[in-house]
Amino acid sequence: MTFRIPKWLNSVCLFMVFKFVLMGSLFVQGQPSEILLHSKSFAFISQGKEIWTLEDCIDHAIDNNLQLKRMELLAKSSKNDFFQSKMEVLPNLDAFAQHSFSSGRTVNLDDYTYVQQKFQDGNLGAQASVNIFNGLQQTNIITRNKFNLLASVADVDKQENDMIIDIVLAFMKILFNEELLGIAEAQLELIHQQVERTSKFVEVGKQSMGELLDMKSQAAAERLNTTTVKSQLRTNYLELVQLLDLDSIGNFRIQKPDTFLLDANAVVIPFWNVYSKAVATFPEIKSAEYGLKVQEKNLAITRGQRSPRISMRGLYYTRYSELGVNPIDPGADYLYADQMKNNQYRQFSFNLSIPIFERWSIQNAISNAKISVLDAELNLDLSKQILYKTIQQTHNDAVTAFEKYRTSLEVVEHRETAFDYSQEKMNVGIENAVDYNIAKNNLIKAQAELLQAKYEFVFTTKILDFYQGIPIAF
Known about the structure:
Blueprint: H1 7-26, E1 27-28, E2 31-32, E3 51-52, H2 54-64, H3 66-87, E4 92-102, E5 105-108, E6 113-116, E7 119-133, H4 137-203, H5 209-243, E8 253-254, H6 271-281, H7 283-304, E9 309-321, H8 336-342, E10 345-353, H9 361-427, H10 433-467
Helix pairs in contact: 1-4, 2-4, 3-4, 4-5, 4-7, 4-10, 6-9, 7-9, 9-10
């Protein structure tokens, strides 16, 4: 058995990469990117449903995701295998019949003399057999197939978890960018107002033309950032739509949560509380545990090949022939029905088979089965190790994000005060464009960092809740 790194782990890593890439795109020439998203920006076919909550997205994906449906089909196949293995303990029953047209020299089975003529004959009957003992192989096969079924069900749950994490990540990217849009739009409006005020001050000679040109350059940079992040938001929507397997974006929009305010006194749940619940319930671990049990049963099945095998067989047989001779009246017709009644044969037998030398094939199979058990044990340990490290990293990210959030709250408060003071000076024409832009850029950077810290904390805490079996919802 091989172990694959869970897809949701890749999603967590993707989010961490995403936050650094996003911070790089937030500031072009020291300015935050601006996000504007209008219906006219999308030339797509309208969807029947336009506003989607996170729950809507998850439910739709669970009902329609093709990969999940394939995993469910595999689970159904495992269920059929489990059912069939239970049926194998029952006797098998076969009926047979044969009717022949013969010619040439052959034996007459009635008197065991050679004849040379054309004739018809036939036989029919039924036989049944059942294994009485085969080293408990069938019992172990039933148990193994049961664990295979449970592992398949766990794999379905894992695939569903992977999909949910991907959807939550895509959903939160959109929320992040749309909230950042509010900051960018507000600052863009302010810079436009300052361009107008600076123009008036230039007209009365209160400020220089150079300061007006600086302001216009700043406004142009803001508009460029707006275009850049608008494209990023379209990409975020496309990612979510593709995860939902929708035909097109159309009027697809997500429903924003009523509030995303964080409690400044919130406490992150202890790491061990999260891990102890996750290791007992998470499908990756369950699948690995069932995989180990499957290999243990495979070893028991292989060892059973060294055991003697006992089976029982029952046979009923009768025959008829044109050459048949009536034993009561040799000259009379001998009807097929009478022949079949008189020629009945019954057999009941026990069969014993003892493997003595199988060219070392059984011993090698046992050796390979032992190796598979050891590999399954390592796979289980590796699964737990990866889960441990992932939760540990997620917990650390949550603590770090929350500390960053609380610190950013103070930074934003001070930056807002400094910007308001610079704004007042700019309004009366006693602040130059350079100092004003520095104050504005500092505020925007602080607001973006606060926003980023908030979404990092929300995402990581939701993931920690998910590890504990709590559904993700806003």
